[in-house]
Each structure stands twice: as structure tokens, then as C-alpha cells.
Amino acid sequence: MVRDKNIAIKTAELLLQIKAIKLQPQEPFTWASGWKSPIYCDNRVTLSYPVVRNFLKKQLAERIEALYGKPDVIAGVATGAIGIGMLVADYMNLPFIYVRPEAKKHGRQNQIEGHLEKGQKVVVVEDLISTGKSSLNAVEALQEAGADVKGMLALFSYGFDFAVENFKKHDLELTTLSDYDHLVDQATQAGHFKGDEIELLKSWRKDPSNWNA
Q1: pLDDT tens-place string over residues 145-182
Q2: In angstroms, rounded to a whole number, what is the distance separating the alpha carbons of residues 189 and 49?
Q3: How far apart are CA 127 and CA 78, in angstroms?
Q4: At what angle do helices 180-189 and 5-17 cross, to 10 degrees?
Q5: Distances from the Cα of 207 to the Cα of 45, 182, 210, angstroms
Q6: Average of per-residue pLDDT across 109-113
Q7: CA 44, 49, 55, 58: dihedral to nearest 10 degrees?
């Protein structure tokens, strides 16, 4: 959930400016799942813009401290959130680890990279929440390793209802700096879209798997 509307609008504005997020209601993207979508999000682009990444890491760090105090460890979800997660950990002067989608097939066969002790309080950082499946997979790996996962913070969420339900089932609190609703509002206010295009953007979120079919 978004907790600060002003930060959500500012985050959306920055992500649009640097083209970390692109909106194309008339020329939709095709996701790996086969879904047609008016939005494409690659928040790793933020790492190339010092002013933007510094804003984002500060907002994430301040929100983490406000919600959970100072955890023992910050964890990033590989690969998209490794960069921003490490920046947050550095800003908070905390240890950093990251979680792979699955354990490596060679070497030490780690799924969690870095030093983690059982019982340590961990906050997970993500770049993007879609279905929530990969994010929650990382949380499960941390919990199986004995971590006390306090919550997750992400830069952006599409705000799908099934993602919300997935986090509820796992009893995990999710906070995002911005989301799809604030993004569309910001793009509309900036005059990027009008009329039918705005309706196309809003209709996608209601039924993404069948949109533009």
C-alpha cells in the first residue's frame, strides 16, 4: 500500500521522466506471460540517475525506519532489487543480503547470498510488485533460513487484486512508494494522455489477462 500520496506522485513523475516506466495504451507491450499491457516497467534504469536513485533510497530508508525501526539486515530480491536494496542498506549503515529465485546448482548452492543469522530482523526491498509470487518466494526462503521478516517495501506496484490477496495469505505487510493508480493520475495531469487513452489505461488494471485480447 502507498502511505504518502505526495511521495507516490513524485516517484511516479521521476520514473516517467527517466523512462523507467513507459506507458503506451495505443501500442501495447507484450509481457513474457503473453499478456498485452499498456505499461512496461524496468526500475533498474533508476540506478543510472544519481538524483533519482538518491531520492528513492532515502524514501525507502525513511519509510523502513518509520515502520520497523532499524532492522538487523536489508534483503534485496534478485536481480532487480539488488542495486536499490544495497543503496538502502548503505544509507542505513546495515548489512545487506540478496535472495535468488532458487538455489544455485553449483558451488555452495546458496539461495541467500551474504551473511544471515537465525532470528535476525529482516526487511525486504523490491523494485516492482506484479503478482507478488517471486517476492514472496524470497520471503519464504528467508523464513526457512530462520529470519524474522518484518515486511517488504517496493518502489512500484501494479496494484493487482490477486497480488494483494497473495500478501494477505502470507500475512506480510507490503508498502510501496508508488503504484499504477498514482502513475496514471500523474501522467494524465502532465497532459501525456487524454480521453480514450486514459480509459484504456484504467481498464487494463481491471482485467489484465484479457485486456486488448
Answers
A1: 999 999 999 999 999 998 999 999 999 999 999 999 99
A2: 24
A3: 10
A4: 70
A5: 28, 18, 6
A6: 90
A7: 60
First-to-last C-alpha distance (Å) of the chain: 29
Greatest alpha-carbon span in the chain? 55
Q: What SS3 class is residue 75? A: strand
Cβ neighbours for 39, distance < 8 A, ≥ 6 positions apart: 21, 22, 23, 24, 29, 158, 180, 183, 201, 204
> 137 near 101, Cβ under 8 Å?
yes
Pick from 92, 100, 142, 98: which is nearest to 121 by CA?
142
Query: What is the rounded distance in angstroms from the CA atom of residue 137 to the CA atom of residue 140?
Result: 5
CA angle 16, 21, 27 (to 5 degrees): 105
**Helix or strand holding residue 92 (H, E):** helix 82-92
The closest of 17, 81, 6 to 43, measured between CA atoms, is 81
* Three cell numbers written together for 155: 518502489
User: What is the gyration radius of the CA atoms in the chain, in angstroms?
Assistant: 17
Residues 149-168 as b or e (16 or more Cβ within 10 Å = b) = bbbbbbbbbbbbeebeebbe
Nearest to 174 by CA among 33, 34, 60, 53: 60
